[in-house]
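Reopening this ticket.

The earlier resolution said the output was attached, but the attachment link was broken on my side. Pasting everything inline this time so it's all in one place.
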Amino acid sequence: MLSKLFKRFLSYKQPISLKYCDLHSPRNLSNELFEAFGKDGLGLLTISGIPYYRSQRQKLLSLSYELSHLSVLDKAKIENPESGFNIGWKEAQSQYPCGTFTANPIDDYNQDAFYQNLWPLQSLPSLRPAFRELSTTIMKTVFLLAMHIDKYMELLFPYSNALSFERLLYDSHSHIGSLSHSLSYNQDRDDNNFNWKNYSGLLTAYTCPLFINTVTASILPPELFDCETGIIVQDTQNEGVHIKINNDMLVIQIGFVSQILSGGVFRPKPTAVYHDEKFAGTGRSEFRMVLNPNDGCELQCPDEVNAFTSSVIDNEVKEYWKPGATFASIASLIN
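Inline output:
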């Protein structure tokens, strides 16, 4: 039992890593995509060397500390309880000022979803341009990766009507970015009740966290934490694998819809955030983008026989699944 716990909490693995220049090359990335997103992969990969990404990341993530420390009145102006706090500011239940700010990086007003972005234009005017700059860089990078995914799918299913990942993402106005700031604490090493999360969407992109000294408000170097992220992936042996990345890396993770659109070739893995003692007392800032098709997009599966596993979630979706099911209907089964 002790050896299993030791492995569970001290297992580290470097994700499959691509360079930004790889995405612009004619190189065949099928092997890397399968190793990262296939059955035995971690369900994610990293991309480094993205132009302007490092500076844009630091600019936006440092603003999350300022955002969380705005006055109660200023934060109330960017809250939207009518949306279930799915847009604008959502305060976390903590004595330390923290929470999450969510916005659509493409449209300030989404007519399909009937919501409007709520920016702190007076109290923190630099947030909107920084949010959009990083979001645009991330979207362009993900679109390039999606192009290579399409090439891989064409090799696997040359005669199918498989949907284009790139086209689904490019046509969508449903992408959502979330900037969060929280206080890390010392989580009990014997606590196996991680909040494992399964992502329903197509692709999720997120940055390496930025750690901040909560007393001096100064940024702490990632080397201080040995480039750990606190992110854990549940592998095929149900072991927790810690992910290490540096601040130049963007993480791209697949969701359940990717499994359907790839005919089961891609297999997403549950993830969680673990608060190690080395992070205790520091502020943790991070940015995450969920890139999805439009809600009414009709999904197609190129291989329905092998698309679903025997897991509880897969069985629920399989029972409901039919060609042409919309993204919104499938996502509602998983969330």
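Reporter confirms the inline version is readable. Confidence is low (pLDDT under 50) at residues 1-10. The first helix runs from residue 2 to 10.
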